[in-house]
Amino acid sequence: MSDLVDSTNQLEVGRGDVVSATHGPTSKKDGHLRRKAWIRRLPLLPALIYMVIVTQAPFVVTLWYSFRGWNTETPGSNKFVGFASYSAVLSDPAFRSAAVVTIEMTASAAIISMLLGSAMAILINRTFMGRGVVRTMLITPFLVMPVATALLFGTTIYDPYFGLLNWILSPFGVNHVNWVGLYSMPSVVAVLVWEWAPFMMLIVLAGLQSESLESLEAARVDGANAFKTFVWITLPHLRQYIELGLLLGSIYIVQAFGEIFILTDGGGGNGSATTNLPFYIYNKVFNAFDFSQAAAAGVIVVIATEIVATVTLRLLSGLFRATEVMS
Amino acid sequence: MATITLEHVTKVYPNGFEAVHDLNLNVADGEFMVLVGPSGCGKTTALRMVAGLEDITAGSVSIGERVVNDVSPKDRDIAMVFQNYALYPHMTVAENIGFALKLRKVPKEQIKQKVIEAAELLGLTQWVDRKPGQLSGGQRQRVAMGRAIVREPSVFLMDEPLSNLDAKLRVQMRAEISRIQRRLGVATLYVTHDQVEAMTMGDRVAVLSAGRLQQCDTPQNLYDHPTNLFVAGFMGSPAMNLFEAVVAEGATQLFIGSQAITLPSELHAVRPTLKSYAGKSIVVGIRPENLPLTDNARDSESTASPFEGHVELVEALGSELLVHFTTDAHAFEITEVMDSNAAGLADGTLTKGDAGVARVEAHTKIAAGERIRFWLNPERLHYFDRATSELIV
Fold it and tell me: What pLDDT, on the 0 to 100 scale, is given for residue B329?
């Protein structure tokens, strides 16, 4: 046991490497080193197994079902059908509509939260009384569970009869508007923005606070007013933080489900104005009981997300280059 | 082209700390003025008030004929070089240098032309497309200079621009900045804590301590005729030896420790107030080079008196020897000046020791442990009042 502890100690292993390098490699040494390397990796194995069980295995199972025609309402349908489920999903207008809804919802929520979050970050990036309290309060929405948030909005804010929104707008002649029914997409986006603006604020605030004061002073001396300083100096500096915030935010907002489930149940407009891809897949399983089409849709979404994420990351790789240069 | 005038400028921070007290300073057109002092003496605050980056509590700052107290930095027509260069990290060298011109809506072709000229002047031509992150410290420093000179401002402000460079590069850039400044002929206010930089670069040097101007004069005059103990101890390397001394009754002799130095009547003609210190303790300052060893000094300067010490250490610098010696007199050293309310130097700002340093010819035969005899010329000594720390005239 003590041998194992010793061997997993990186420092010990490192020292061993140096010794072997000076003495010249021998096959016996190599074998010894390989065993040592494996012993060093061994503690990672439980995590790896866990990851495979909870992420990769379900994916393989999903892949398996996507090539079958399993609908629990159709007896005998659980058999191999090739790409039939894929073609069914791809030719389903509801799937395409869900894709469009996902893009609209994600883009608008991410962009609006970024604008709002940046504005909050700029406001809070100065010293004033009670700054800590204000900052904590601004972050709080991000810490509330999505379902709780959606319930809160649905019952206390959007409610046609008792909602705060109608009450606040009543002096302007707004009466008992069914916000969620009539403006379902904006209602959901507003909830998402409420949740995600604090996150964007945190990231942009980190960016603002990492900016060198001397650069700002240099810009003032160089002849820039406050607006030009922001556009020419601060904004380029914030660019990488904004990109990062949008990327991370989008990754999460694409998966939005709880807000939709609670508020609109995917409805609104023509009946599916807020059905995004996760909600579409949910419907396929729990309303249509078509496990195979749900699986096929899931696989398509994974592939599409992978492509979008790869392209975006490549576009944003400037972000990583820039940080390298600065450090 | 303009002058910089500071009249009774005072800066008090919100926490009550007085960084600059009643500062009067006038930088002539084309003059290179160095503000020097230990850290925390208020020199950077003074510079930032001229730049407009710091509010002025009292007094007025003028650039040219115009009082600029309430003028924003961008309208002061100044260019500033910052200690950490403050380059814009996302812009190339060319964009950094041309940024101020771009803000002034100078035509693109003209900007390009000026950037090329500045880059040539500073030897940056091959790096104009690089970002600051890809440059060495010296190159960044040049870009910061380029950004300042391309503006053709009426005033240059420099805040310890060489402090982040290594020793060799610092000497090189020192000469380069002086050369560029003379060529452009723009009034320059240069802040440094390094008295060698101050001596070598400044047309005039203003010595600051605890937010107060101690003396402002040409480097040679500061060195030869310091008006108080602080300037005497701060300027020069190795520093001036400061010994406690007692003026004998009748003021014909001065006792440094137990050794008597004859004060000739010629000296009293030059320094009439010295007589009034008869029987009192004063501080006497001796530059290391004013401690000659040979009797020749006695022959040519008949007023010289012998002054003996015990050699502790000999440092050979090649061109000369630094002889560290001890005597039975108390020696003082200038340390940090903390009390901003003191008119001069309080006793606490002087630390007591017993060592002195002499600068002697390189091939002199001296070894540690020997007795050494110098010949002191009283006319080359500096006499200071202990209480006020002012020069006795």
Answer: 86
Tell me how far apart the alpha carbons of residues B84 and B67 are, in angstroms, rounded to a whole number. 29
Residue among A225, A237, A325 minimizing CB distance to B74 = A225
- Which of A217, A237, A326 lies at the smallest CB-CB distance from B86? A217
Contact A221 B79 (CB under 8 A): yes
**Which residues of chain B from 336 to 355 reach within 8 Å of chain A, CB to CB?**
none
Distance, in Å, from the CA atom of A199 to the CA atom of A193, rounded to the nearest integer, reads 10
| Domain A87-326: homologous superfamily in CATH | MetI-like (1.10.3720.10)
Beta-bridged to residue B325, according to DSSP, are B311, B356
To test the contact with chain B by mutation, choose from A211, A222, A321 the residue with the greatest count of B C-beta atoms within 10 A, namely A222
Cβ atoms of A196 and A253 within 8 Å: the answer is yes
Confidence tier at A11 by pLDDT (50, 70, 90): very low
Question: Considering CB atoms only, which of A212, A222, A233 is closest to B100?
Answer: A222
Using DSSP, state whether A197 is helix, strand or coil: helix
Verify whether the Cβ–Cβ distance A221 to B78 is below 8 Å: yes
> Among B81, B88, B106, B156, which would you mutate to test the A interface (most chain A Cβ atoms within 10 Å of its Cβ)?
B88
Which of B210, B226, B242 corresponds to the end of one domain?
B226
Q: Which domain holds residue B368?
A: 231-385
| Nearest C-alpha in B relative to A229 | B103
Number of compact structural domains in chain B:
2
3-state secondary structure of B206: strand
Which strand (E) or helix (H) includes residue B258? none
Question: Could you read off the pLDDT of B65-103 as tens digits, one per residue?
Answer: 899 999 999 899 999 999 998 999 999 999 999 999 999
Render pLDDT for B99-146 as a digit per residue (tens, 0 to 9): 999 999 999 999 999 999 999 888 899 999 999 999 998 899 999 999
The edge-to-edge listing of strands for the beta sheet with B78-81 is B78-81, B155-159, B187-192, B32-36, B204-209, B212-217
